[in-house]
Each structure stands twice: as structure tokens, then as C-alpha cells.
Amino acid sequence: MIGRLNHVALAVPDLAAASAFYRDTMGGRVSEAQALPVHGVTVAFVDLPNTRVELMEPLGEGSPVAAFLAKNQAGGMHHICYEVPDIYAARAQLVASGMRILGDGEPKPGAHGNPVLFLHPKDGFGTLIELEEVR
Ligand SMILES: CC[C@@H](C(=O)O)C(=O)SCCNC(=O)CCNC(=O)[C@H](O)C(C)(C)COP(=O)(O)OP(=O)(O)OC[C@H]1O[C@@H](n2cnc3c(N)ncnc32)[C@H](O)[C@@H]1OP(=O)(O)O
Ligand SMILES: [Co+2]
């Protein structure tokens, strides 16, 4: 069911500073910051030859990243995103296996415009898993 690694996401307290670090110190190609109010985050992507790193800072009230940063003040690894060819088929298979889909359970457009959903970290051996449909 799962395919390529789409991205690894890092929660950061200061997106501008993290973007500058990945661009100027690490020599990476970093996208412009993109506000995603539906997801409660502002993100920038570091494009690597084989995958991407998503840098995220909280946006707005009730951001899912705010609680994580309250516990991890310097920031840290937040989730991992796998590609799937059909997100509804993947969801059906996972729900049938007893996995919990977060939020209202419905896929929503992610940073690349593709539908995404999240699985509860307690069901994924302590790792928050995002699935992104890439056809
Ligand atoms: C930009 C769009 C999109 C993209 O295109 O890539 C994105 O990536 S958006 C990214 C942000 N969105 C999300 O993370 C949505 C899904 N997340 C959530 O719904 C919540 O963050 C959560 C995972 C349900 C946690 O919610 P929270 O209110 O923080 O609950 P708790 O603090 O009670 O946590 C419960 C439990 O889970 C542990 N936890 C929390 N976050 C993580 C994490 N990132 N990785 C691993 N474990 C995590 C937390 O420590 C609690 O454990 P216990 O303390 O043992 O109970
Ligand atoms: Co993500």
C-alpha cells in the first residue's frame, strides 16, 4: 500500500530561522513559506535529491504543532509522510485493521494540493504518520 517517502516533517519554533539554517548553513534548496490555516501550520520545504523535509511552525489557535512544541521547545521530528496511490482505499484498509484516522477522518488537501490524512501516533509505534495520495 505505501510507496515513496514523500517527506519527513520537523516542528520548529521559528520557521524563518530554520529556513535560513537549511538554506545558508546546510546548503539546501528551501521553498517560500506557505501558510496553511486549515492545517494550523506555516510550512517551507527543503528539496533533497531523494525526498523533502517539511519545516513547520504553528499557525493560529489550536495548531496541532503548538502542543508538540510546548513539550519539545527546541523543535523536533514531528511526522513522516508516505505516498499512497489511492487514499480512500488506503483509509479503508487501515480502518479495517483498527487504525485510528485523526480529525474528522476525511482527507484534506495538503501543502502540495494532494489529499492527505493522519494516523494516530499510538497506532504507529509512537510515530505520527501522514499519508499523501500521489497518483
Ligand atoms: C501542511 C499540511 C500537511 C502536509 O501537506 O504535509 C501537514 O503536514 S500538516 C501537519 C500538522 N498536522 C497534524 O499534525 C495533524 C495530525 N495531528 C494531530 O491531530 C495531533 O497533533 C495529535 C497527533 C492527535 C496529537 O494531538 P495533541 O493535542 O498534541 O494530543 P496529545 O498531546 O494528547 O498527544 C497524544 C499522545 O500522542 C503523542 N504525540 C503527539 N504528537 C506526536 C507526534 N508528532 N509524534 C509522536 N507522538 C506524538 C503525545 O506525546 C501523547 O502521548 P502520551 O503523552 O504518551 O499520551
Ligand atoms: Co506533512
TrEMBL record:
Q: What class of enzyme is it?
A: isomerase
Q: Which Pfam families match?
A: Glyoxalase_4 (PF13669)
Domain of life of the native organism: Bacteria
Under which EC number(s) is this enzyme classified? 5.1.99.1
Molecular function per GO: metal ion binding; methylmalonyl-CoA epimerase activity
- UniProt entry keywords in alphabetical sequence: Cobalt, Isomerase, Metal-binding
Q: Which reaction does it catalyse?
A: (R)-methylmalonyl-CoA = (S)-methylmalonyl-CoA
Q: Which GO terms describe its biological process?
A: L-methylmalonyl-CoA metabolic process
Against InterPro entries, the record matches this protein to: Glyas_Bleomycin-R_OHBP_Dase, MeMalonyl-CoA_epimerase, MMCE/EMCE_epimerase, VOC_core
- Similarity comment: Belongs to the methylmalonyl-CoA epimerase family.
Q: Note the NCBIfam families from the entry.
A: metmalonyl_epim
The name this protein goes by in its record: methylmalonyl-CoA epimerase
Q: What species was this sequence derived from?
A: Plantimonas leprariae
Q: Tell me the gene name.
A: mce
